[in-house]
Amino acid sequence: MQDGIARQRCRFFHELDAILGGRGGGGGSTGAGSSNAAPWCQVVIKEESDPELDPDQDLQEDEYAWTQVSVTDGSDLDPQGEPSAAAAASSSSSQTASGLLHHEDVVAAPILHQHHHHLHHAAGGTVKEEKSPVPEEPSLRGGGASSYHYAQEDAHVETPGGDIVGPGMGESPLLRQETREHLEAPWRLGLHRRAFPRPRTLLSTREKLAQLRSRRKRPRDDKFDELVRDIRTHFREREKLFQGLWEEEKAQREKDRRLWTAELGWIRQLWAKSQKEQEAAGEDQNGPRHVQEEIWNRDLCKDSSEGEPLKDTSVPEPLLLKAWLESHGRTFGHFISGKWLKPEGRETWTTKNPTTGEPLATTLQGNREDVDTAVVAATKAFESWSQLPGHIRARHLYNVARTIQKHQRLLSLLESLDSGKLVWETRDADLPLVVRHFYHHAGWAQLMEVEMRDWKPLGVVAALTPRNFPLLTLTWKVCPALAMGNTVVLKPSSSTRLTALLLAEACAQAGLPPGVFNVVTGEQELGEALAAHPGINKVAFAGSAEAGRSLRRATAGTSKKLSLQLEGKSPFIVFDSADLDSAVDGLVDAIWLNQGQVHCAGTQLLLQESIAKDFIQRLKRRMGQLRLGDSFDKAVDLGALTEEKQRDRIESLVDDARAEGAEIFQAWAALPTNRAFYPPTLITGVYTTSRCVREEIFGPVLVSLTFRTAKEAVALGNGTPYGLVASVWTETLPLALEVARSLQVGTVWINGHNLLDAASAFGGYKESGYGRDGGKEGLYEYVRPKWEPHPHPGAVDINYKTFATSQGAERPPVVSENRVPHSVTPGSEGDIPSVDRTYKLYYGGAQKRPDSMSSRAVLDHAGKIVAYVADGSVKDIRNAVEAAHKAAPGWAKQTAHARAQILYYLAENLELRRAEVASRLEALTGGGKEVALQEVDLSVQRLFYWAAYSDKYGGAVQETSLYGASLLFREPLGVVGVACPNQQPLLAFVSLLAPAVIRGNTVVMIPSEKYPLPALDFYQVLDTSDVPGGVVNIISGDRDHLSRALAEHQDVQAMWYFGSKEGSALVEWVSAGNLKRTWVNYGADQRCWTDTQQGAGEEFLYQATQCKSVWMPMGDIFAN
């Protein structure tokens, strides 16, 4: 009321006139001073915005709602539902008022409640809604100002100023003479005020409605009825809407209250039980924590009552399985050249049932002689098997698939008994996938001459498989190897051997030629001997990361191709937009499949904070329903661990987490007495640095962390050195795809887990290994380019710990007879020497001086010094890697078109320097002008070639058996180190640089050690071609010394080396530190860089990318 008193008063009269129905025109009165009129007064109340009824708070200044009420004492109240005497003047108006009273009380009640301070003077009075007074008929059509006379109250009303307003005081002097005290006083009741007219166009909808109410006496006024119906319908709909929202809110609050009450009761009950346990054991109130944990678990695990002994769930050995074991006398040897081989003098190993510990059969412990026998048989079979047409090999694989289907029940039973896997898992998941792989790769054998026409088989493949999923894992290795024309020698895990021997027997029964598939059994040392055998051309390994490092070092420099499928720490990310019940069920399958003894198990649960508490409660309830027992029991959820020593390691990790203050939940009530079992375990309240978070547990143990944003979830998922698989749970597809692309893993499942198929590539990033199993991507691991002969580097006798640890110093110092030539320009003051050219290092988009502050002499073909270049060191490599690492995310997110334009620009600027660069090449190599010009032209052509591939190798849709989409993305590796050869220094440099950067990698280039000048001149082209700083970095110096620094660096994801055989062996040996991918030439210089296949083949694209499979199941419209 402070600002604009006159303006507010004017607005008040306008609104009052609208309510009373003033239209202007001649003055008149309706019962002014009539003694028969009931005592009443008009009170106008401004309705404020109610957030429950009108969420739009930004009302315009003139949009007000006015309600007419009557203030009386308690004696004048009308009965509920009956109209007052004043209201009975018009039946239509009475109906309107009654409707507002009964149907819009939701609006009226808050208004009266909010504005009760306007009516405090009427003590004991009652506020109820009244109709507006009806003006006389002449005023309805009049054009001038209209005045109204009101019936006055019988009871006296005290004004704020202390005056008494009683009957007969309708013409108050205050309306004619306004004092300052009167203007500043609050609104007073029972006073006559004159209403001022306002045009109808300025009236709000509610004001027009008030006018229509005052005109209800007019006949045939249909617009009013229609408007009233619309208004009532509108408010009924809004009332229903907000009533529904309120009911939902009430239901959610009641649910939360019940959960909280139940949790409090549960805590009180557990506390009471723990006190009783402590008193019984004679302990104090701070008893051991594991006692409390067991009590919690017994309370949640309802399947077994307290104190009731667990029943023996062991199932007798099936007759079919028993018959097969008895047919071999429960004694097995090696399977070589299609027959059983039991050499004399070998030790034996007893395979036991993991659940009961009962012996199943005995197998041989092979030695190096057995390895020699198997490799010789495989080598002999390779000569004929590799020459068979693809159609013939496809027939053999097809027959093997048919034979496996005939013995599918026997294989599933033996797999369950041998490894401890549940029989329903092997029957419903493993064996169908095994059959699917043989059928799928029979198709690839048929299509090899078309789809893989530029590739050829490697030779003899050594397959080393782990104890988990023994049959399925060996199928991943054997099928693509046989399809591409290789032969296989398999060494299964020492604890799970029987299914491999049965599969070999089934292959022989299907007619597979002798020696194509061989199986030898033994300890880990036998596998090492097999991998190191000189007759082996490829090693396919699946197992732990530490064993993978040992294998990488053992095969360094031997020219054996190596693929590693190693362990993982897989994130299971649940967002608040996920279906929590489905996520809980998916998590049970993700972590407790095969007792958690799966490298792709979702052992790292990442929950959004808003749902973490609810999700954990649901998960604990579900864990309490899990049942452990014999693997042949089809009603159990978890079986026994494969090895007892694995239980000791799991207990060690759980004890470490408990010592750090983590909360441990374990379903002890469902645990059998056999020590081979371990209870399902949930660890919460841990740190990201905890051992259970960093290391793979390889057991039924789940670790939970929370996050707030999607970016934090991605950071937690990428925060481990492993990158095998991940699963993302959300109903928001854009969020799921963005998170899937951001995670550094080989496979991402959206709203699912453990989805596998033969047509989908499966493998890891980072320390989870390299190489793929399944699909066309898996075939490249078992072939080499047709033009490439098998390298035979021979024995490499070097000390890996000291080789190339210091910079070489074989270049001569500056001497007078061998100094750098300078051109001389004659001038007026004599001969003017040319300015000395300083060749620096190039990283981070700028030229840098070497940290060693030293230079290396560069000699031409005649042995003369032509220049001095910077001698890079380990510190320079670190700086260059840091620059490349910073540039990698931005460069990888550049569009393929943008990267292509930069490569085209490089080619354009190199073309402008064609004569200058050719002259430099001719002076260095002495190959002649035509040869130098041809090398420059081929370099420009090579840039155009790879620029064209920028948007044509991004991925594909994999046709799997899943009802949904399985997408294959070919992603960049990250930071790639490249050591260039001495042959054709410019063309080789461009041929290695272009495919790496066009696929989104950043590179640290080591130019030709002998002729580095063309590469160092090239950074002037980079500076003028819009190449972002850090994408290309060039460090000159000793090739082996700098290559060692790159291979040892933890932030380098791949290393390409083209140099000596000693350097190749060093790179492979050192790369075991972070298990980076390597591509080396083993000292062979037979690659012709001018040839299209050898200098720009598909091999370059394969080496420059890594594959990620993203699974998106469907099923909202049609069932799977």
Briefly, what is this?
By secondary structure, the protein is α/β, with parallel strands linked by helices.
Question: Could you characterize the architecture of this molecule?
Answer:
There is one protein chain. The protein is of the alpha/beta class and 1120 residues long. The protein contains 33 helices and 41 strands. A ten-stranded mixed β-sheet has the order 19-20-21-18-17-23-24-41-35-34, with helices on both faces. A six-stranded mixed β-sheet has the order 14-13-12-15-16-26, with helices on both faces. The longest helix is centred in the N-terminal third of the chain and has 60 residues, at 222-281. It is globular, with a radius of gyration of 43 Å.
Strand content range:
15-25%
Percent range for helical residues? Answer: 40-55%
Strand line-up across the major sheet: 19-20-21-18-17-23-24-41-35-34
The average pLDDT is 80
| Number of helical stretches of at least 4 residues | 33
**Rg, please?**
43 Å
Question: What is the structural class?
Answer: alpha/beta
Low-confidence stretches: 22-180, 182-196, 283-296, 300-313
Distance between the termini: 69 Å
Profile the largest sheet: 10 strands, mixed
**How would the global form be characterised?**
globular
Number of strands: 41
